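Hey all, sorry for the wall of text incoming. These are the two entities for the joint prediction.
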Amino acid sequence: MQSPSDRGFSRRSFLKGSAIAGVATTGLTGAVAPPREPQTFGPGAHEVTLLVNGKPRQVTVETRTTLLEALRDGLDLTGCKQVCDRGACGGCTVLLDGQPVNSCLLLALDAVGGAVTTVESLSDGTEPHPLLQSFVHCDALQCGYCTPGMVMSSLACLQQHGKPTRDQMRRDLSGNLCRCATYGRVMEAIERTAQGGGK
Amino acid sequence: MTAPGHRDGVEITVGYRGLGTQPDRLEQRTVAPAAGDAPPWDANTPLRAVGSDHDRVDGLAKASGRAKYTSDVTFPGLLQARILRSPVARGTLTTLELDAARALPGIAAVIALKQPGQRVRFVGDAIAAVAGTDLHRVRDALEAIRADYAAEPHTVDYLQHEDAPALAADGSIADAWPSSASVEQALAAAAQTHEATYRTEVQTHSSLESHGAVAKWNGDDLEVWCSTQATFGVRGELARALRGQRIDVGTLTVHAEFVGGGFGSKFGAGIEGLACCLLAREAKAPVKLMLDRFEEHTTTGNRPAALLQLRAGVDADGKLTAWDVRSFGGCGFNVEKGEGGGNVAVPDYYTKGAKTRRKHLDLATDTDPARPMRAPGYPQGWFGAELFLDELAAKAGIDPLEFRLRNDRDTMRLDQWRFGAERFGWAEARARRNEPGARLVRGVGLASARWGQLGNPGRQPHGIQCRIHQDGSVEVRSGAQDIGTGLKTVMVLITADELAIPPARVTAVTGHTGDPSGPGSGGSTTTPSLAPAVRHAAFLARQELAALLAKDLGADAAQVAFGDGTVTVGGRALSWADACKRIGPNPIDVRGKRFPNYDSEPFSAVVCGCQFAEVEVDTWTGLVRVVRMFGVQDCGLVIAKKLAESQVLGAMLQGISYALHEQRILDRTTGRMLNGDFLRYKILGSEDVPELGCHLMTVHNGHTSTPAAGLGEPPSVAAPAAVANAVFHALGAPVRHLPITPDKVLAALAARRQ
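and here's what came out:
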């Protein structure tokens, strides 16, 4: 008879209980970090330091803990959402060294040494970031669940292109799903921000 | 005759102002509001906040990531939980051994959701649930549970059901029509007839926040956060279910302040909600249980598949004289309980002069039952019917727009057709011819929409709490939920206009069952049902403030006037802030209610819409791209314009997604969904977005003090059909089976060449 493990190969069963040795940088993202000595982690929990929104934060993780889990469950930064858990929807998008990444596909240990930026950083100050204001002004959201991820991909798009074209926006947002389908207004919000629109 | 308890008739202006070059359709009507209700707002009432481009009031909370959805709620010591699911589609659970799971480190509670001997009805049926310190340990524990099944042969394809009709090689229904003398006669007398079969596939709701809950017991009191479209429905369901488990609950409070999508799938707590409460009780700790994406696709309902066949005839003037429809719904196991949910709706405003017949049959499969999904039954039926009408119009040599103008019986939609066609540039686009042999071909299509929702008071009249505080702030509360459709914003704007203050002074709170009851957000009821209650609450608060000021300042309450952030009391003008200072530490605190709709006929009992689409088809690859789309939609009184437009535009895109991409694929051998994720279950993304526009029209139906109508569902009715008709125009051959994927496009092109 079948059991749940018959569901097939999963990232989790691959990593479960295994010890991984690796260089804790982020080669996949193309980020440049100084080479570090190889370290051995696992099995079991470790306290590590993540640089999140400019501040070092202690968080307890296992080798199998994703960056998304560390941010949400460890640091209560719940702006990034777990939606598909397969890198297919962008709901968990954060920036790692300025590049948008799916935090559900990245192990927390692999983010050690990098700079993580979450959506919460855009409303840390007295005034919300102009991009957030444009999202509200353009009503670029309905249920709002995809929105933090959409905001982070939009921010990366703006940072990369300055004044992105519609085609650049379509491409940069193509990893973010919105079931309420407010894509058009997200692109309007990016345009408005690029044109200097705040409140 | 005025019924007792009603005040005398009030004369109001109902209808709408001209759409483009169409004439105004305004009329006078006498209505009789209930005693104590706010007076009606009509077509001549000057409103400031209502109908404006005001921002979504919780937009910043959502965009900044600070809004806490159910999945974000946490507590010290919070446990995580998951459900063990059946891997067999049909059979009996024979063994369930939980002790090994209980013994694992970090596991706080393990409960059975089925007992050995009980039936298993689909792949994903809930068997047991586990709570532990984190999801990794919980998943380890699920794997330690032993569950055995006596599997039986299953069917997951409704077309293999014994009552399913036989299909010919081209996919059309091959069974003879049952006889109907009147329809047969009308068909025999028709100048032109047509017959064809249409199919749609199962669509999953694909809400981005999955179903789930957080449960926290405080002694016998239970607090539940639930991702739901019906806070009060969840409360009632959980209270009943826990009583069924012989658990006495003191108070039961449900919270749903932010909800990450529902689209019809989230009316109940479900087995996951109940399991969460039971686990929390056993573990004596708060528990969170959110489904994963595969469970979301496979255990929380769907829009069922449809197979429908139409035949019809027109007379020499192109008017429909015969209309015969039979349909089949491909549903889940619950058909045997009479709850298949697969019924297919078709438009009735084209066929009022025709001999008609309508038959439907739901067919059961060993799958997850259907649930309502945004206009249940409508997108399926409208796709078939509107594409069929275009095929019939082509046979009769009539332009699709002209065909609808001849047959549509709704005056409002006739205005919308003409207005929309002008804005879209229908005549010009339709006349354009594709180059012979061109790889990329274009086409345009149109389709109609209809919905009927003017709101209702509910069995126990819905309420709204309104408080005016001495600092001048106003608080409006509803226990109903805002699922992204904008209830909070609607509450703020109506209250602001009734009190003649800026919306910034008003705060709306929704989604806590400790507040006055409201409807579940289904059938596009929330705004039309609650808007008059919000208005009534603000109206009562205003009366109380007027009485207080009149007493304080020695004036007559009738001489208190509110306007532009100022209150005038017997000739003395006070700023709103100064007026409110007189309230004292306890706020003015009133509860408004939803009165029934007026007895008089509304201007229109239905909402109307129509949409136009242009597509480009790559005849080499079969890929369809929607190039542009335009929609016209009525929703009664438009309250929060920007938000209402978002709903219309979103529904149009969701419709494109349904027309071109979405399809649940089940493995017939295992009964398991093969594309139960977002990699292989494709929904529309940013690359697929066409040039998109809509025109939202306010229609004063004169049915309540604050006459909103339902909007969530109607714009999702027309979109798939408009796209399918545009593909038909581009190819010169119809694709009668959604989604219109490249294989079907290429097959249609091949068939045309033969």
